[in-house]
# Entry
Amino acid sequence: MSSRIPISSSHSADPEKQIAGSEIAYYLSRMLVSGDMSDVKFAVSNDSGDVKILSAHRNILSIRSDVFRTMFHGSLPEKCQEAIVISDTDAQAFASMLSYIYTDAQVILNAEHAFRTLACADKYDLPGLIRMCAKFITDDSRKSALNWNTPDIVEGCLSVVDATSVDVLQSDVFTTVGADILQLILQRDTLCNEEHIIYLAAKKWAKEACSRAAVDPSGTNQRVMLGAALHLVRFPLLTDAQLLDGPAKTGLLLKSELWDIFHHKHAAVKPDLPFRMDARQNDSRAEGVINYTVPDLRQLTETFTFSPPIRVRGVPWRIMELLDTANGYVNPSDFSLKLQVYLIADLPVGIEPE
# Structure
């Protein structure tokens, strides 16, 4: 079963305002929605088995995306066919990607839609749309992740928080998340931040919670607002000066807790603590040096390979070697192949390392 759907129904009310006030974007959107002068069709399958037909224009797609340029104008261009079959995404996400290509408009509807559109943006190499999706996810999806009750989506949100925690923990959005999500974030071993920054973020959250509850932001009240999240901050990792200038002054920690922390840090006989003491994976230094010997080209069976990772600021980095092969495979007798070497980070799609 196949049917035609509009690229975006949101442009019908007041398109000149909804497409960033750009006249050219408005007319491009009209071309996309109407299919006028289109020269390529995409057949996009849904989970239900239905196929949606989306029309577009090869040159416009090629201008915006090198992937489409290669597809339509490369050495092995896509052969003319009734419709190019797209089976690895849904029609809504693919249509949103097309709408962005034509208009640069904000096309994200919700966080779940952002994840699906992000996969399209990554596949077709659209950095602007990748940033748009990633920003939407980091700003909004943390609030609703638990409501989906889907472990994969929750973990995906938290992975984004890990990789962007420098900005996330210092953002105003962080102070608005619920206590359950706060606990999920603070218990992460992979937050790319110093523990002192994590403490300050938790304190800021607690202070804002006191403000919402219309109570005095005293240390005692902040403890109450944090609840179980208080013991997810790894206070023993703070320096003595940070402890004295921070929780010791504000009253966030009890005197007995402070005494036990100092006793544990400096005494031979160490008391048990209600706080974790193991460091998070956030060291600003490399944990090692990548020593990578380029293998014999004749032994390669694929066009690229990876080195083992090392971690920098909690982010795993690898060396990737890529063979420049015109035919997409390695000829064992060809020693003139170019070897390109890159340093890449294993990050969630769309997130750029600092």
About this structure: The longest strand covers residues 315-324. The two ends are 47 Å apart (CA to CA).
